[in-house]
Specification:
It contains 1 helix and 44 strands. By secondary structure, it is mainly beta. The chain has 2 domains: about 180 residues, Immunoglobulin-like (Sandwich), CATH 2.60.40; about 350 residues, YVTN repeat-like/Quinoprotein amine dehydrogenase (Methylamine Dehydrogenase, Chain H, 7 Propeller). The radius of gyration is 30 Å and the shape is elongated. The protein starts with a strand and ends with a strand.
């Protein structure tokens, strides 16, 4: 009985995941031109659910008016016409994106209108006021500062926390009910409140307000089941003077985090501090209470939606006030690329607009760049990791006609993540075949919400004349699919001894990453695998099963 010998060649490929059509560089790069031609202040940044970035800021070259620009992937453009949205000068800018509608909202203090606190939204064609303001709410908003805007996650309605001079400078919260603004709680802090930050717990829809509470200590207030009160162990719970208070919730497990500057007596300045709420108390995130090497200003907080890690940015006074961004890896705080990644000082920005793009996995930072005449500049850092991956399929060294053997088609994603795949296995049915659909089984890709493996006879597979094609395709619902995964198990049957040449070819038609909303093709694609047969005698060589040389896979 004749036998034929099959060897499978494969190579290790480096799969570099690009985004926005540019390859990830794991370094800071500038996002287009500066947003202002002259001095700008109070940059506030956010991304919508499809990865469009927005920055709101004050443009001093335009009578200190409010401006908002959006990023289209290659350039900034004004949102609304005219570009100067407010009637006059503004302070205390807070930009957020409505979660249900993707519309940008901005809260700010209007210095040209008796310092009134205002909330506006862009309705797709123009900026419009959000709701009516009357009575007690009107009195408080007339004197509001230190504004923080957030959205009720249950109904998409905006709420605002602010320092309320109509109530002794204490903290107040108002909410929009779809028609008018209503009181949530006015003047609730024990003392004068500053540096307010408002956020909703996505799992409970409870609002939390963090702020500096009179004696310069930190407090956190929340509303549960319609009742406001201080969070347990959260009334002036630290003993040092704080500034730049931020509160937020990790996206995957909804843990509350605080980021702020805390006074260090030895340094004589504020140092960066991050705490999380665990077991009804605030604990340090990391082993060090105050982990920055020197003084800080303009602390800002966001989260990496891919790995749930907190990220903070601040102006680093130990490095000439240059902005720095750091993330927590589970044990320590680490810089994103190099520290001081811009030439200018950002210590007088009066805020750093920090935001994470959930689609393209990029951290972006808007800031006042003192090295560029105090203009508003934006930089981004790609958090994509260059991936490596290998397609492999082990074929018996000697196959007898009539022999059936089952082998897995594997993709080893050693870095990066797998989002979707289409792979064709083409064979010459005169020598080796997959008899039916039942001879192809889907693999074990974690969290795959679609997987299909089948004999393909349609024109979409474009099988060469006389050849048989099996298509393996699928898609994941996860951004964490890495490592070795089996895409399919294929049951081959030997038909007859073959002449020299390729009788099975495995070609990756498409392998893409799991970038939500914008999956991007791995580049370069995995090289095709060729199963080359050598029939005993036909090639003039009496073939026996050898040991696999380097670069071959033989079982």
């Amino acid at each position: 009985m004749k036998k034929y010998f099959a060897i499978l060649f494969f190579s290790l490929l480096f799969l570099m995941v690009p985004n926005f059509s540019n390859a990830a560089t794991n370094s800071w790069e500038k996002m287009g031109n500066n947003l202002t031609s002259g001095t700008g202040y109070f940059p506030s940044m956010a991304f919508d659910s499809v990865g469009v970035g927005y920055v709101a800021y004050r443009d001093d070259s335009d009578s200190q008016k409010l401006h908002v620009k959006k990023w289209n992937g290659s350039a900034w453009s004004d949102v609304g016409n005219p570009a100067g949205i407010s009637a006059g000068a503004v302070w205390y800018i807070s930009l957020k994106i409505a979660p249900f509608t993707n519309l940008p909202y901005v809260a700010y203090q209007d210095r040209s209108d008796s310092n009134n606190l205002k909330v506006i939204k862009f309705d797709g064609s123009a900026w419009v006021s959000v709701g009516a303001v009357t009575g007690t709410v009107a009195n408080s908003l007339t004197t509001g500062t230190c504004v923080s805007l957030s959205f009720n996650t249950s109904n998409n309605q905006p709420w605002v926390a602010f320092k309320d001079f109509a109530n002794g400078g204490k903290a107040s919260v108002v909410g929009f009910d779809g028609t008018t603004w209503s009181v949530q709680d006015l003047g609730f802090s024990l003392n004068v409140a500053d540096s307010l930050s408002l956020a909703f717990n996505p799992s409970t829809n409870d609002p939390y307000v963090a702020f500096r509470d009179g004696s310069f200590a930190l407090s956190v207030y929340k509303k549960t089941a319609g009742t406001w009160g201080y969070l347990a162990n959260s009334v002036q719970f630290n003993s040092a003077y704080v500034t730049d208070v931020n509160i937020g919730f990790s996206p995957n497990n909804n843990v509350a985090y605080l980021a702020f500057g805390e006074w260090n007596n030895s340094l004589g300045d504020f140092k960066a501090t991050v705490k999380k709420y665990a077991s009804s108390s605030w604990v340090n995130e990391g082993s060090s209470l105050q982990f920055s090497s020197g003084g800080v200003r303009d602390v800002s907080l966001t989260f990496d939606t891919g790995n749930n890690k907190p990220i903070i940015a601040y102006a680093d006074l130990s490095n000439s006030g240059k902005p720095i961004a750091v993330s927590f890896d589970g044990s320590a705080w680490n810089n994103f690329s190099s520290a001081g990644f811009v030439p200018g000082d950002a210590s007088n920005s009066y805020s750093l607009g920090l935001a994470f793009n959930p689609i393209y996995k990029e951290l972006s930072l808007a800031f006042q760049d003192m090295g560029a005449s105090f203009q508003i500049s934006v930089m981004k850092f790609s958090t994509f990791i260059q991936g490596t991956g290998t397609l492999s399929m082990n074929i018996p060294a000697i196959i007898n006609p009539g022999q059936t053997f089952t082998v897995p088609l594997n993709l080893n994603v050693s870095a990066g993540t797998l989002g979707a795949w289409t792979i064709d296995v083409t064979m010459d049915p005169n020598y080796i075949t997959i008899a039916s659909n039942s001879d192809i089984a889907n693999g074990n890709v974690p969290n795959a919400f679609y997987a299909s493996s089948y004999l393909c006879v349609s024109a979409s597979c474009n099988p060469p004349s006389g050849m048989q094609v099996s298509r393996i395709a699928g898609m994941t619902g996860s951004q964490t699919v890495t490592g070795n995964v089996t895409l399919a198990s294929l049951a081959f049957t030997g038909v007859a001894a073959s002449p020299c040449g390729s009788i099975v070819k495995v070609v990756a038609k498409e392998v893409v990453d799991s970038t939500l909303g914008a999956p991007t093709t791995f580049s370069p694609m995995p090289a095709e695998l060729n199963l080359t047969s050598q029939s005993s005698g036909t090639c003039g060589v009496d073939v026996v099963a050898p040991s696999a040389p380097s670069g071959l896979s033989v079982i």
